[in-house]
Amino acid sequence: MPEKVVGVLGGMGPEATIDFFTKVVALTPGEKDQDHLRLIIDNNPKIPDRTEAILTQDKSIVPALIKTAKNLEKAGVDFIAMPCNTAHYFYDEVAKEISIPILHMIREVAQAVQASLPECKKAGLLATSGTITTNLYQTELQKIGVEVIAPDPEYQAKVMDAILLIKSGQEKERAREELLKIGSLLIEQGNAQAIILGCTDIPVVIRTDDFTVPVFDSNWVLAEATVKLARGV
Questions:
Q1: So what's the pLDDT on residue 64?
Q2: Residue in 6, 65, 199, 204 annotated catalytic
Q3: What are the chain's domains?
Q4: What span, in angstroms and rounded, lies between the C-alpha atoms of 137 and 68?
Q5: Which helix (H) or strand (E) holds 36?
Q6: Long-range Cβ contact pairs of 165-171 (< 8 A, separation 24 or more)
Q7: Any catalytic annotation for residue 199?
Q8: Residues 227, 96, 133, 85, Cα dihedral to 10°
Q9: Active-site residue, from 8, 47, 84, 126
Q10: Is the pTM of this model over 0.85?
Q11: For 96, 163, 174, 214, which has the most beta carbons within 10 A of its beta carbon?
Q12: Which residues, listed in sequence order, are joined to residue 122 by a DSSP beta bridge?
């Protein structure tokens, strides 16, 4: 079976897209350049802010996502990966406008939790307010019997501040410290048995060994699914 060409609907944010690409390369077995996958990346940071679009019900984001997806389709990719959790709120509206598949990052994370941590009943979620308020993870994890524990509003505001610091490229250490603190609270006070890094900017500063429970990096999970689909394994 020939390898599939991967399209990446990126730029949300740019550093998260770089992180995703790096993980795809790391997960692809190969001894030379030619062993690696062909990726066509449309790094489009001009797509409107996802959380703001959700909270204000601004639908202007949808044409921007569709146009970028169609650019990739025209470029000849076989499927699309979209390394932005919050953008999956618009997944169905984008998917119906193109004829190639889009991997669903959040469903892939739910499958990863079920496969590697079947005993998990509660998972702490570090994500944007857009992802949390739209119940993207709650909906998928409920299907496998996992309750999502999100920070309370005060701490969720601090999660958003940390994400914006990461996006700005400034004070990443302060962002890391805040996220570590909030993640630990989800474990200690919320009894979370796992932590989901449900924003692709967060893995820029948080590692999977930073907490006392298993950590699911959504960018890593998407990269794994991308490599498997592209290689037909």
A1: 97
A2: 199
A3: 6-104+221-231 (3.40.50.1860), 106-217 (3.40.50.1860)
A4: 24
A5: none
A6: 166/13, 166/15, 166/201, 166/202, 166/204, 166/205, 167/13, 167/15, 167/201, 169/15
A7: yes
A8: 20
A9: 84
A10: yes
A11: 163
A12: 147
Q: Which residue has the tokens 């524990």?
A: 149
- 60 neighbors 50 (Cβ within 8 angstroms): no
Beta strands 215-217; 147-149: pairing state: unpaired
Model confidence pLDDT, tens digit, residues 112-154: 999 999 999 999 999 999 999 999 999 999 999 999 999 999 9
Q: Is the predicted pLDDT of residue 1 greater than 90, yes or no?
A: no
List Cβ neighbours of 206 (8 Å cut-off, separation of 6 or more).
126, 176, 179, 180, 183, 197, 215
Residue 82 pLDDT grade (very low, low, confident, very high; cuts 50, 70, 90)? very high
Average per-residue pLDDT in the chain? 97
**pLDDT at 212 exceeding the cut of 90:** yes
Measured over the CA atoms of residue 71, residue 75, residue 78 and residue 81, the dihedral's sign is: negative
Contact 111, 103 (CB under 8 A): no
Instruction: Write the DSSP assignment of 210-223 as a string of letters.
Output: SSSS-EEEHHHHHH
